Structures are given as C-alpha cells and as structure tokens.
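thread: overnight batch results

M.L. [08:02]
morning all. the overnight job finished for the chain we discussed friday. pasting input first so we're all looking at the same thing
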Amino acid sequence: MTERVVLAYSGGLDTSVGIGWLKDATGKEVVALAVDVGQGGEDMDDIRQRALDCGAVESIVVDAKDEFADDFLMPALKANAMYQKRYPLVSALSRPVIAKHLAITAKKLGADSVAHGCTGKGNDQVRFEAAVAALAPELTSIAPVRDLALTRDKAIIYAEQHNLPIRQSAANPYSIDKNVWGRAVETGFLEDPWNAPIEDLYEYTQDPSIPRDADEVIITFASGIPVAIDGVQLSALAIIEELNALAGKHGVGRIDVVEDRLVGIKSREVYEAPGAIALIEAHEALEALTLERDLGRFKRGVEAEWSNLVYDGLWFSGLKRSLDVFIDDTQKYVSGEIRLKLQGGRATVTGQKSEQSLYDFSLATYDTGDTFDQSLSKGFIEIWSLPSKISARRDLRG
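M.L. [08:03]
and the structure it wrote out:
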C-alpha cells in the first residue's frame, strides 16, 4: 500500500506547488486538507477541486468556522490577546485548529506524515509542526517549500511550468492569509518599512479617512464571552462576522507593524481585524468595570505571556493550558453590556454597565451623597509611604 501524506492546503501558491513536489520527491500519495476558518472570498469546493487538479489523490474540506470561533478565538478574547500590544494573532490562532485536523485526518487515513506550505523564514512552520508534535508525536512533518528553499518568484515559475491552476503571479506578489478574525498581508513592496500601505491592500476595512456617520453598537457579554449584539443573541462566529462588517465599514482594526518573528528576524506586516479589535476594546472595558485592581494588574502580565506562547506556536503546551485555567477563572464576573461608537478607524467605548460592577457611585462621586471617608486617607498615605521615607533617610545619611 502506498504511503500517504496529508497536506494542509489553502489553494494558494505554496501549497499548490507543495502537492507536486511531495508526490515527485517522496513517492507518497498526497491528500489535501482544506480547513475553513472563515477565510471567505473563494468557494471551498473550488479549492477542493484545485487540489485534485494539482495532483492530490484525495481532497478533504472541513468546516471548522464555529469550532475556530468557540474554542480558539473566544479564549483569545478572554486573554485580550495582542502580540507586542499590536497584533491580535490573526494567523497564529488559526494554525492550531488546522494542525488539529491535520493530525485527526492523518490518523484516520493511516498516513505517516503531514505537510504544510510554509517557508523556512516564517512563524507558521513552527506553529504547524509544534502543534502536530504535541497532538500526534508519531507523525513526521514535511515542509516542501522550505526544504526546496524556494523563493516566492521561483515558486511562481514552478507553478507556471507545471501548469498548476493558481492565481498567483509575479505582478501580484503579496502573501495573504485570512480568516474570520482578520487578514494579514506581507511581501512585495511592503518589505520596505518606509513604503506606506496603499488602499488596494485592504479587503476587510474601508478607508477610515472618508467621512461617515458613526454607528453605535451594544455588545452583551456573559462570563467574558460576547453573546448578543443590540439585544439579539448570536453565536460567537455570527458576532465576529457582524462586527467585521460594522467596524470594517469605519476602517477599524487596520494595523501596520514591524514585529519580531520567532525565527529571530523582524518582519513588516499589515493586518486588518475590525471585529477582533472592536471586541477586545469592549472586553477590556468590561474587565475594568468588574475585575478587582490587583487581579486586573496581574492578568495583564498573563495576557502578554499567553500571547507570546500562541504567537510562538505553543497553543497545546502545558504552560498555555495552565494560563487558560487562570484566565477562565478571572472571567466569572465579566458580564454586562458595552456600548461602542464606530467611526474614523476607531471603536470607542461610550457606555458600560454590569450587575457585577465594582464601580460604586457613592464612593466615586465628588458631589452630595459621597460616602468616602476622606479623613482615613492621611493615615493610609503615612503607612503606604513609610518604606520610602525610611529608605530616603538612609540615602541622605550615606
């Protein structure tokens, strides 16, 4: 029986080239696996057929949109996940769910290996292979594009020489990755950080500089998870999709950043994540209302570590699992409503309320009805600053 390899197939240049190389170089039958994580823009049946046209013996499509939203994006939202405080982990979050289905499919078909179309310079090669190693350590990972040291222009030539049915061309050299959480664009003229992005790069967002009337939206959360928009209960996936449209209309979520890749180089990336940024803004505001001070402070450090782990491909690591337990516990009282104003590229919180709120009007007000006993502050400050006072006296003696 001929051995099989299951290839994570996107329908793009790298994985289309990968089918041909894997078949010729290893002698294995190639099974293409396309995982729908809400990338849109192209019919998944067309992608399935393209894989067959490129030489795959079997082409499988998995609809993982709800799974992606519920099991991967909602944990990220609870963690307010932003790598280097800028990037909402658009690609990094989709890789573990794709790797999970790679491992499941390989086991089901009796394949001894899996493959992906990543280069040797990016983060995704690590994310796929580390996830597969954690889920199915018996499987071997193969990276045809990386192992052939193909540059993007060489891959285009290879595809043209082998008549592969792909849309990539030398005139459109961008590398684009997208899912329901956002869209990433790199390579081409963007490799020079001095070059400003052009409007044609964007798909999920409209130009925020064009004047538009603001839209207002109320997001209802239950234990850290968005459950309704303007009082209408929706699934997590539907909420993200609706906010992509609403916030995207106002250009919310455009990000232009030079980030530190796991492999040690810096990379210029352009992202657009309207729904993700709107939800994170709302979620952080609700946490400010419902989390006690020290818990909120500590959680912000955990969020940074959580984001680093996911960016670095360690979704299935022990530390990540343990941090999930902590983050889930912090969300017990993160329930309520947040009102957002969407306009001019920004999602601005204009209202917040919760039955679990720690905001006490009678303590906060400066008007009549103030119940805060200001006479207690003098003694508090004396005790609070005592270590600094004692240390300062020593410094003066020295």
